[in-house]
Amino acid sequence: MKDDRPVLGTPQESDPASTAPARNAPGPASSGDVPPRFRAALLIPGFAGLLVGMGAGLARLAWTVPANVASDAALHGPLMLCGFFGVVIALERAVAIGRAWAYAAPLAAGAGTIAAVAGEARAAGWLFVAGSVVLVIASADIVRRQKALFTVTIALGAACWTVGNALWAVAGSPAEAVPWWFAFLVLTIAGERLELSRFLMPSALAKGVFAAIVAVIGAGLALAARPWGMQVCAAGLVALAAWLAKQDIARRTVTKQGLTRFIAVCLLAGYAWLAVAGSVMLASGGLSAGTPSYDAALHALGLGFVFSMVFGHAPIIAPAVLRVRMPYHPAFYLPLALLHLSLLVRVAGDARGSVAWVRVGGLLNGLALAAFIVSMVIAAVRAERPTTRAV
Fold first, then answer.
1. Where are the chain's structural domains?
2. Which residue has the higher pLDDT, 6 or 76?
3. Closest to 207 (Cα-Cα) out of 264, 150, 145, 157
4. End-to-end C-alpha distance for the chain, whole angstroms
5. pTM for the whole structure
6. CB 323 within 8 A of CB 5
7. CA-wise closest residue to 43 among 97, 86, 7
8. How many Å apart are CA 59 and CA 255, to the nearest integer?
């Protein structure tokens, strides 16, 4: 059977009533599920991973950060991709399933985040493996209940996370794992957007093209050890960006108002950055760690594509997961604009070979993420504040 509770990339902006206040209203937990306060506790290590990961990224750009955060500079990627996104996506999947056992995935991933922050990278790797294995099982359960191209794509994304985690746990270096970690995020989002593309009735040919694109990305990952392997993957990313831009309902909902338009703007901007990331990889011959093209491609993917999706869906996903109200406010556009402008500065710095531009862009990247977190918290607090009437 189909479960309509949202996971990453499953916004309800496609619903004609998506702007209605009821969309953000807390609802009852399903039978066998866990209470919202437990879900919130599971998010704590995830946000710790985000904050420490942001600081570690700034340390890599030679910005002054606390010494204990600077010591985690080498773990910037694992903390952001596994410590934050791994926890959040695993939690969202557990909420979608509504079964207590599925929460073992975010629990293990959160433990991995704590281990990574504590300097136990090897233990963190194996804890992430454990969490991703449970996520694969949870995703397979969804496929069992609803066999569809989008559920299979999401399950493949979870499998990519498992492969990346295993590579990191065994090798001790994140370099080989990074493409698999990003494939986890890209396929998860693509699968969820494919589900919503049904509102535009994609043809059988369009679905076939989507499946072929996923196959190309997978082939590129499998052949990553070869010089041209990542270029194959990059070609798949560019093709996926074009497919999403054409098939996604966002190209219609961008003409709406309020939250619906905000989500659409986030999505369309994200697809543009996905195309940029793939194009940079193609032009540079793949991914070569430590090069300007590597920095540009990965941050175009991570910040421009993935975080743009997070910005758009947070006002829907957070209420569904935590049972809190988080009404839309036009101020959400401010951190979104800062995110994309700061990324433009960073990528331009990579292209020009300007370390100063890259450093400034990186600092503004962090400020954009912090500003969005603050805007979400303020929206939630204002929504929960009791209304007073004049006497």
1. 35-176
2. 76
3. 150
4. 51
5. 0.88
6. no
7. 86
8. 41
